[in-house]
User: Fold N-acetylmuramoyl-L-alanine amidase from Streptomyces misionensis.
Amino acid sequence: MKRPTAPRVPNGIRVCRRTACAIGAAALLAPLLLTPMTDDEAPEQRLQYAFSDAAHDFHVPRSVLMGVSYVQTRWDAHPGSPSVAGGYGPMHLVDTSQFPATAPSPSAQGGGALRPSAGAAGAPAAAPEGVLAGRSVKPADLQRAAKLTGAPAGRLRTDAEANVRGGAALLAATQRQLGKPLSDNPADWWEAVERFPGTPDVTSAATYANDVFAVIRKGAHRTTAEGQDVSLPASPGVRAHTVRTEKPRHAKGTECPVEVSCDWLAAPYEEIDDEGNYGNHDLADRPRDQKIQYIVIHDTEAKLSSMFQTVQDPTEASWHYSIRSSDGHITQHVQTKDEAWHSGNQYVNARSIGIEHEGFLRQPGTWFTEQMYRSSARLVRYLAKKYEIPLDRQHIFGHDNVPSPTGDSIPDMHDDPGPFWDWRHYFDLLGAPLKPTAGPESDIVTILPDYATHTPTFTGCRSAGAPCAKHGSSAVRLYTRPDEKAPLVQDPGRHPDGGASTMDVDDLGSRASAGQTFAVAERRGDWTAIWYQGRKAWLENPKKDPTAVGAVGKMVTPKQGVDEIPVFGRALPEEEAYPEGVEEEPEAPLPYHFRAGQRYVAQGTIDSSFVPRSSFVDTPEPVVRGNETYYQIQFDNRIAYVRSSDVDVVGAPVTAGPSAETSAETSAETSTDTQDRSSDQ
Assistant:
């Protein structure tokens, strides 16, 4: 298959290809020489060639071009499909003609008030501290790239090679605007790299450039979602020349890592009527009155500008942080000491921090951006270190993994961020990679499909029953028998009428997700059965392309002589623990069976507690603590709890996931080798 020739670049000279270019441009390109290869021999390296050709034609070091693309998209093309931010192709070129401007940060609105106000239509506020005067806030503009390369804009949306050339042209144009030479030294391109995504504040721009140069130094290799094999060898000697001296821009009251900018947009705590109703969060004194144990990952299912309005409404829900898709900008709404109303389970709310990510689970083609993943991982690492939260999937989980507090509420529980959130990559960025910890015949498995190549069928993204666009997924599907034609396991909580589980993108009843651990019930050939919702659930798990890997841990099983024990969505205190004047919160077992002989993977014991937060108060309500302890288990796609007194522990002891502090060495800036090892298996 012949690779089409890219359009000639105005004022550019295209005088050589492959071998001749590798010799003639050796001083110009980054230190990576490709083995000469014809198009017919290596169609899976067309993108690799495109980086080489564009770097040569526009006089941009190839390592810079590839490093920028990696931090933009990890080299994935998503042909013709824009991200949530409206970016296309491996360079994430934003088509500003088709997409409205990014939701502004609160500080850019002149003090953070996004509610309509008398001064809202006045003169624009002066640039906040930490924003360079005159800095362009336009992202890498697809329309401008089209003009620079002479290619139609439509081609840059759909053709990865044309998109790469557009990115190279933008980098070269920015370098010229800065009055700098088109140098062959990657370090000379720091400021051009810093400006590429159009990030308006200095701190975020510098962090972006740091990420790019970390990739250049460390190197990277992966097979993209489109099957392109792309490599960037490490250049450990590359160092940037520019050193930023500005302090990070953190709005007063925010709790954020130093390497990101962070705004404040307050969620209200106020009465809403004369009957004592209030919103939209509760005062607390965490971790003094209640340990923070979880971080819950959400997606917004709306544009961030709409969510900013929602979080300021006292009659709506609340969450602690929002993260913008276009550049990963963080806005805080609720102090972490206080309890936001975000998970649908007050027990989890009391012990968690909620983070919303701008995105849409039902639009897999409108993909989550790499900058949002990276910014989120930085925030989670910071919070996990601050509150000693283990970096594992039992403590860092999605809204779709939060247990229902009662059986009646199961059908109403949310299902974001959904099957297209890349948990494997996310934990690589956290510096706590998901990986095998035991042999393939172990009694415990961790769900771990290869995200890029694992593309199960989903329906309902656009209309009921219609297939969703093919897309990588963190979710594996579970069957009643070791046969993909067998019925899916039926969830009596989600479908209390006895209805079958479906392949609908919102139906969690027959799915497990990357990083979750389960006890093995049986193995047959390429199939593995796990204990799930009180029954055996089968997943296809071929040895050559596993979707679950061996893990160590401990399991719980009903005490000897007990036929069945209850499973709960909350770990509530015993009746005697409630003081006089505080009404007991009734226990509500979930409509599932945990029978003798079954096993579920468990963490250590947790204390029972209840917080009677139902009144508008000036000081936090006291926490009711019980003597009863519970085990947290992975019961299905959601976590659950069982009384310690009901179970025996079996299996080897296990510690929780790595701490944020011990994971710092493999953080987002330096984890490119683990980020992509899944594609090398």
